[in-house]
Structures are given as C-alpha cells and as structure tokens.
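Anyone up for a design puzzle?
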C-alpha cells in the first residue's frame, strides 16, 4: 500500500510541474471581474470550512467538520485536498477520517459558444481514518475521467462527467479473500443561477461497480444551495449529500473564502 501511495504522490507532483510549465489556453480571469462560482469548470483558489452531520442507518452517526483547500495553479489547473475531522457517536472517538485528493485540468475551453470546457480529472480517497474507531472505510478509491461544461441558457448549465473507478480491498478483509472491484462513476451536474450571487447545484452521482464478477449499482448525489455574500471573497452554502443505496445521509453548511 505504501508503494501505491508513493506512486500517486509522484503522479500528482508530476502533474503540478506540468501545470506550471504548460502554455495557457486562455488568459487568466481579470482581477476586476467578479468570481463566477456557479460554473464548476471555473477554477479558483479557496478554502472551504464545512461542518457536517452524517446520519448512517447501519452504523454510527458521525459529526464534525471537513476542510476543503483548493489551489488554482492557474486558470486551467486545480489541486484539491479534503481533510475531514469527525466524531463517532458509537465509539466516542474523534479524529481524522479518510483524506480525499483531486486534480482538474481544463485542457480545452470555449470549444463552441455553448461547449465551454473539457476537463479531465483524477480523484483519490485514501483510507486514513480508523475503521476500528468508526472513522474510515478502510479502502482506497481511485477514479479518473473527464467533465464537460455546456451552457443551456443564461441561467442553466450542465457539467456531466464520467470516470473509471477502482476500489481496493478494505483492510478488515482477510488477505486470503480475493477482491476485485472496478466500475464506472457518473455525475450529472446541473447549475441553476437564480441571480448573479445565488445558485444551486443538482448533481446525481450514480456508480456501477463490479466486485468479483457481480455488478451492483450505487445511487447517490450532491445537492447544494450557494450564496455569494461578499463578491470575490466569501460564499456561504448548505448541502445535502445522500447515499441512497447504503442509506447514509450527509448534511453540511459551510463557508468558502476566496484567496
């Protein structure tokens, strides 16, 4: 597992170096132009603080906060690390949950007047949370794919994406047990702008995973309402993140500070 961690650390560092050296496709967003966070393919440096509560039917409820730190190396390359600190109501333990690291690269923009972006991504969740303490799932999740941005109307845009998903064997399985888990993850993100400062994301995220020859579908989503309070500085949001298949329901309310 250490070798796998070293490999992905090397991969991210290589991507960062490439991002710094690659010729920009478009010019940076001018400083005087207001940030438009209603389009996920617009990339900005920001810090998100997200208190949350997880209601889990067949497990221990969790509560705490996650810190989502996003660094835009330039207008086309974004690095994200998500650090959750949670408390298990069953085990009474508090600590680090599973870390998530993501990378986006808008390799092509303004393809047509409506097709505004094509952005490959890499998404990794590491099993840093303790399974014994009820703070982690005990397996790696690795996904690679791409998202496009398409403007439907002045107030509505879609950002569908597809990715290949690989899950490693949870560490509570015996080593003798064979485990092969791969599949496809989808996102069907729709962005609705009610005004220049208020917008909503409706993002169903189904996935279809084959584990040891058996396919299973997982139905989940991310739904959030966002409000720019201070232009270019502060955004508030509330969100509902359900995993309908496993009956896990996550509620968050937070703030994003643009840097």
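Challenge accepted. My sequence:
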């Amino acid at each position: 597992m250490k070798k796998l961690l070293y490999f992905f650390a090397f991969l991210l560092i290589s991507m960062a170096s490439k991002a710094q050296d690659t010729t920009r496709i478009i010019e940076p967003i001018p400083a005087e132009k207001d940030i438009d966070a209603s389009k996920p393919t617009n990339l900005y440096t920001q810090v998100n603080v997200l208190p949350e509560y997880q209601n889990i039917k067949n497990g221990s409820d969790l509560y705490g906060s996650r810190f989502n730190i996003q660094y835009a190396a330039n207008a086309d390359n974004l690095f994200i690390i998500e650090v959750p600190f949670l408390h298990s109501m069953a085990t009474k333990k508090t600590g680090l949950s599973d870390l998530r690291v993501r990378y986006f690269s808008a390799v092509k923009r303004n393809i047509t007047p409506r097709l505004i972006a094509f952005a490959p991504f890499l998404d990794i969740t590491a099993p840093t949370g303790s399974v014994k303490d009820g703070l982690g799932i005990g397996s790696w999740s690795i996904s690679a794919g791409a998202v496009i941005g398409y403007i439907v109307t002045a107030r509505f845009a879609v950002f569908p994406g597809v990715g290949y998903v690989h899950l490693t064997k949870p560490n509570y399985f015996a080593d003798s047990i064979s485990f092969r888990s791969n599949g496809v993850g989808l996102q069907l993100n729709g962005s609705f702008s009610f005004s220049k400062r208020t917008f909503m994301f409706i993002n169903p995220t189904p996935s279809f995973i084959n584990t040891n020859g058996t396919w299973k579908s997982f139905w989940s989503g991310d739904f959030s309402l966002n409000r720019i309070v201070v232009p270019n500085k502060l955004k508030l949001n509330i969100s509902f993140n359900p995993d309908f298949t496993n009956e896990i329901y996550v509620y968050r309310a937070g703030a994003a500070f643009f840097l």
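A detail worth pointing out: The longest strand covers residues 62-74.
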